[in-house]
Design brief:
By secondary structure, the chain is of the alpha/beta class. The protein contains 10 helices and 12 strands. The protein binds flavin mononucleotide.
């Protein structure tokens, strides 16, 4: 029996296996006009191919809850009816081919308004469909980035409401998992990390204050997400600052993550999608196969919150071992699934677990 291809039930939702597609920006929605932020045929075929390929859960790219929350002007959004309808077509297709549709709800904070990555990913201004970014503190991400506007408390409250409204739309569009994007140096991560959050009010300073915005967002999403469906949180389990003595800068640590995982569990989160980094430019990240797995494994070991492991997981037996050994409840694949949408079905064959080939392809099985 393969542990990787056992189903996983969270609340009342059964996900058919533990090979999931990680959220990945595609930077190809319309940047303006009525189709701004609306999923296109690209998104349907890109996400649809991974459902056909056998992924158990497919999480959309970072999907902005307000226009200013997009990472690039070409990102997807979920703040209006047209975007919601565009997603409904995709969730129906994913379900038809046996995958659970999940959406990553996001705000890019001080790393918003940047170019497509294949054009270098540098900040873009209003002349190129960009805008002035906002953040917990008026501290730019790094050289060449604009100084973001510091969010006022009223604006923070409106953003919490925007996450709730986006979750309501996501549910109406047919999604069954809502993932709050709290990682990679975007807005929620900026509040969590002392590296980016220099506030002295109720949203900055102590651990309780820095986690306040994230937990308010989780509460707003949980308030509209049905009891029977799971909410995930994607975290950067470390900023790779404090834990790297040579760096000298202070950041969020894996100790913070363990503590925060317990808070998230108490606030109704069902799984921690455990990534790292992104908040501090120049942090030294020891990327190597499976390098983020120990962070997931530690949360699994020290809390009751289920976890997903992500990052340079590329081999079926590596993925099987992560789940079978109890280091994580599921694995999320990013780039490997870009290279090969059929990875889950081929891994299932290698691990003697069958797979989920569509009838149309039966002659190839
Ligand atoms: C093209 C691309 C786009 C990405 N976009 C997102 C995103 O929207 N949200 C997110 O949380 N992570 C994003 N990531 C990170 C992936 O979800 C994943 O964590 C990372 O690629 C490591 O996994 P891998 O080694 O399997 O690719 C992106 C990665 C890639 C390669």
């Amino acid at each position: 029996m393969s542990a990787l291809f056992e189903s996983l039930t969270l609340r009342d939702l059964t996900i058919p296996n533990r090979v999931w597609m990680a959220p990945m920006c595609q930077y190809c929605a319309a940047v303006e006009g009525p189709d701004q932020g609306v999923p296109t045929d690209w998104h349907l075929s890109h996400l649809g191919a991974r459902a056909v390929g056998g992924a158990g859960l497919i999480i959309t790219e970072a999907t902005a809850v307000v226009p200013e929350g997009r990472i690039s002007p070409a990102d997807l959004g979920i703040w209006n009816d047209r975007q919601q309808e565009g997603f409904a077509r995709i969730t129906a297709f994913l379900k038809e081919y046996g995958a659970v549709p999940g959406i990553q709800l996001a705000h890019a904070g001080r790393k918003a308004s940047t170019d497509r990555t294949w054009r270098g990913g540098a900040p873009v201004g209003p002349d190129r469909h960009g805008w002035q970014p906002v953040a917990p503190s008026p501290v730019p991400f790094t050289d060449g980035y604009p100084v973001p506007d510091e969010l006022g408390v009223e604006e923070i409250h409106r953003l919490v409401e925007a996450f709730g409204a986006a979750a309501r739309r996501a549910l109406a569009a047919g999604f069954q998992v809502a993932e709050v994007h709290g990682a990679h140096g975007y807005l929620i991560n900026e509040f969590l990390s002392p590296h980016a959050n220099r506030r002295t009010d109720a949203y900055g300073g102590s651990y309780e204050n820095r986690t306040r915005f994230a937990l308010e967002v989780v509460d707003a999403v949980r308030a509209v997400w049905p009891e029977e469906l799971p909410v995930f949180f994607r975290i950067s389990a470390t900023d790779w600052l404090t834990e790297n003595p040579e760096d000298g800068r202070e950041g969020w640590t894996s100790d913070d993550t363990v503590r925060f995982a317990k808070d998230l569990l108490a606030h109704g989160v069902d799984l921690l999608d455990t990534s790292t980094g992104g908040v501090a430019a120049g942090a030294r990240i020891p990327a190597a196969p499976g390098y983020q797995i120990p962070f997931a494994a530690r949360v699994k070991e020290e809390t009751d919150l289920p976890v997903g492991a992500v990052g340079l997981i590329t081999e079926p037996r590596q993925a099987e071992e992560i789940v079978a050994s109890g280091q994580a409840d599921a694995v999320l694949l990013g780039r490997e699934l870009l290279r090969n949408p059929y990875w889950p079905n081929l891994a299932a064959r290698e691990l003697g677990a069958g797979g989920r080939w569509p009838d149309q392809y039966h002659r190839a099985v």
